[in-house]
Write a structure and sequence with these properties.
alpha/beta; Rossmann fold; 6 helices; 5 strands
Length: 149
């Protein structure tokens, strides 16, 4: 099983960026935790972080023929990333959106995601663990799909 993991804008600053909201774990540490989980489940991850929507779209396009699903933390692009949304629709892979913070409990402008409606699920508010919960959910969806369930 192959999963593309996408980290959007500013997530490269995790660990130092607003630790009271995003915690102190770095992106490298989160990626290491996901790689540990993936190894234990026989999953291959391709992990991409970019501060540029076009680079994230390119990574999504490149999943065609390789990935079984996508895990994405679009960062603030969840608010206005219509081209990112269209790329997810275009590749037609099960996708799960994750956020470290509970965007529903923050500023009003953060509460509507243009990405969520084209995803199979959304996980938010569990800190860095949102990534592991999202991976687990996506893994279950993909396993059920292989079994026809």
């Amino acid at each position: 099983m192959n999963i593309l993991v996408l980290h959007g804008p500013n997530l490269n600053l995790l660990g130092t960026r607003e630790p009271h909201i995003y915690g102190t774990m770095t992106l490298a540490e989160i990626n290491a935790r996901m790689e540990e989980w993936a190894a234990a489940h026989g999953v291959t991850l391709r992990i991409v972080q970019s501060n540029h929507e076009g680079a994230l779209i390119d990574a999504i396009h490149e999943t065609r023929g390789w990935a079984d699903g996508i895990l994405i933390n679009p960062g603030a692009l969840h608010i206005y990333g219509y081209a990112l949304r269209d790329a997810i629709v275009a590749v037609n892979l099960p996708t799960v959106e994750v956020h470290i913070s509970n965007t529903q409990a923050r500023e009003e402008w953060r509460r509507v995601s243009v990405i969520a409606p084209v995803c199979r699920g959304v996980v938010l508010g569990f800190g860095w663990r949102s990534y592991l919960l999202g991976l687990e959910g996506l893994y279950i969806l993909l396993q059920e799909g292989k079994r026809g369930g």
